[in-house]
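So, does this match?
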Amino acid sequence: AVKAGRYVQVSGYVTLNGSAFLPMQPAPIGNNPPPASPSYTSVTLTGWATFSDSSGQVTSGNVSISVPASFWVYPNQYVSQYVNPNVYVQFSYKGRPAGSASMTGGLNVSGWPSGTYLSLSGSGTLSGSVYVADAD
């Protein structure tokens, strides 16, 4: 007998964190501070998430997420950036392997630079749909 299947909406809440070192700014000359110049920096934001459908029967287990981001940072200026993780996730249904899905969504990450260090964090929801063969 051929089993019917269906697409199931799956989603999960993701929190990402990352930090980067910033180049040193030029030292002030006398009483004149140098003009603030931005630093270009790259950071890898990482986090964990569990994805599932509304019933909790289609679930992913704990998934590691890693997203590269790059931006210009001005000294002592708030940094805010939108990132779009795209995570390929394998699901199980009632304990058996089910399909896989690409989980997508936009998250805002932000933080303040402190000296030569920038710490960023942000959170949001990623979602997708997975094909599940119905159990007998």
Q: What stands out?
A: The chain has no helices and nine strands. The beta strands are 5-21, 39-52, 58-73, 79-83, 86-93, 96-104, 107-111, 113-114, 117-133. The first strand starts at residue 5 and ends at 21. The radius of gyration is 21 Å.
